Each structure stands twice: as structure tokens, then as C-alpha cells.
Hints:
By secondary structure, the chain is an alpha/beta fold. The chain is built from eight helices and twelve strands. A ten-stranded mixed sheet has the order 3-1-2-5-4-8-9-10-11-12, with helices on both faces. A two-stranded antiparallel ribbon has the order 6-7.
Amino acid sequence: MGGLLALPQGKGPHHVGCTDVMVGHTRQGLFLRLFYPSLPRAGATEPLWIPRSEYCAGLADSALRRRWCSALLSIAIGSCRVPVSWNGPFKPHSSGYPLIIFSHGLGAFRTLYSSICTELASWGFVVAALEHRDHSAATTYFCTAEAGREEWIPFQQVPQGQKEFYFRNKQVHQRAEECVQALWLFKDITSGKSVPNILHQDLDLSMLKGNIDLTKVAVMGHSFGGVTAVLALVKEPSFRCAVALDAWMFPLENMLYPEVPKPVLFINTEKFQTPESVAKMKRLSSRNSQTKIITVLGTVHESQTDFAFLPGKLISRIFGTRGTLDPNKGLAITSRAALAFLQRHLNLEEEFEQWNDLLEGVGDSVVPEAPFCQSNL
């Protein structure tokens, strides 16, 4: 694998393929990276982790607020690759794979959660990792109807003089609508409707017809994406449950909490949550006994992203404190808890219930709820 990144391969029984999908020629369209069970292919190409240099510039702006770091980031991480088969042949499944719509965090984009998306796909899920167009991505773009022309959508800080809640609340509603829009995209594809991918990838989206079970759909996300997933449950009845990784609960208006109809699994890290945020999670768990809150010890907010797998002191200085828990172990706990929860609420016929104890916060490096009084870091 090229570069510094050492992302793990999926531990499940399936090989994993990956492609990019862009639908529509305006910012009202969709852009996502699709991870899916794949047939093995000799000499498969592995995709770049950072798809283009513009994303390094976006990270430098959004995460570091130092545009001059763009070239350094490009040198350090620009050649890193993801251990999946780019446009690999889709592996058919007569009864259909369950579907997960994944929402990224603030200042991230569609590829920065490749480790968790790959892991879930290796266990038999189709995972659609969105790239949001609400100015919360480090950067993103769409292709206009004019041949070869791209229009970029930069990251935007909260405008001076505007209250953060109102700015972020508007964004979270757009993000949740994009999650719903993504689900309807897959409904169109599976119904046989022609959906052109304007990126012209080798994978024909019509291959998905008959291979996705739209009665088994979940929404998932990290940080800003975590609260996006919670809101998506309110907006779309087809989502059966949500998995929220270290959810940033701040942007959601209080009046919506009683409206969340389905169970949520909150998987928190040790060093990000506030008592106010956890109180909002507990408000949901008090209304639904199937909503669970657990914390993974020895982890920080970035532990649930691919940045956890970047070695070296330089990277640590750029992206902040590292957790003390081995990132492979952290990924295993997070993915296994998610799989157990998804089996329970999507009625899957797998063996993921072997990890049910994690949903109660029982196991090595995991505890129930949020232990503000202790720290392993």
C-alpha cells in the first residue's frame, strides 16, 4: 500500500469493492463513495485515500486553517491507498444486501472513513459514504452540464455575527435530507430505473438491481454525521435504526428529540463528549429501551476516522492527540458493536449476536454510557 497509511483489510468473509457515484449536474445532486461485497479480481487497483490534491487543500483550510500546509499534506498522505478493489466486480446476492447510508463529520469528506466502511462491507453490507454539499465537507464539487467543468464547494466557517446553532442547524437538516435522497437513489436503482453516473465509472449501477434489500436500511455517521443520522430517522421512515459515532448533538433542536422514532446506538470516544451532549443521548434512551450508549476507552474523537491509522509524530501534531487504544482494536470494537446492533434491528440472519455484550458496555476497553470520572488516556 502506498504512502504512510496502513488501513486494515476487512475482517469479514467478503472481498470489498469500491467506486464513486455522482448523480445530477447541480449541487442538489448527490456524490458518494460506494463500498460493497466484491468478487476477487487479480491485479485489482486500489483507490487513492485522498482522491485529489484539492482535498489536501480543503483539509489544510478546514482542520488546520493553514492553506500553506496543503503541499505538505499532499506529500505526506497524497499517495496513500485503500485496500479495496477499485470498480471491482459486484458480488451478487439473491436475497439482497442490507444498506447503510454513511454521513461524514465536520471538515471531512467521503473517503476519510474507509476503514469502518470497508469493514462493514466485508461483512455483507452495501455502504454509501456521502460527501455533503452544505459547506461542511473540507471541500467537494459537482460537474456541471457543460462538458468538463467542475464547480467546487469549499468548507465554510460560521459567518461572523451569526450564532453557531442556527448555522449548524440549517446544515444538519440539509445533511439529513441528503441521506434521505441517497436512500431514494437506491430505491430508483433497485426498481430498474436508469440512473446515470456522470463520473462514468466501470461499475454499472444497474448491477445493484435485485441485490439490495431495501427493507433493511440503516443510517450511520461520525460527529456531525452522527447527529445527522439521528435526524435522518425523523425524516425517513425507511431507516430502521441509526449508529452514531461520537455524535455532536449540539446542532439538533430540542423539539425534535421526542420525534426520534427508532433505536440509536451511540458509540462514544473517551475524550470528546460533554455532559450536555450525553444528556441529549440519554433523553433518547429514556424514550426507547433499544437505544444504547457505550464508550470506548483509550480513544479520542479522531480514533473513529482513518486518521487513527496514520503513524508518526508529525501526523499527531497536525491532527491532534492520539488515543492510547490500538486503532485496530478500536475499529474491531466499533464495528462489532455496530454489527450486533444492526443484526438486532434489521432482522439479519447472521451471527453478529456473538457481540451483543458490547451493546451493554461489557468487554475489554468498553463501558456503558459515558465515564467522565475516569480516563485511560
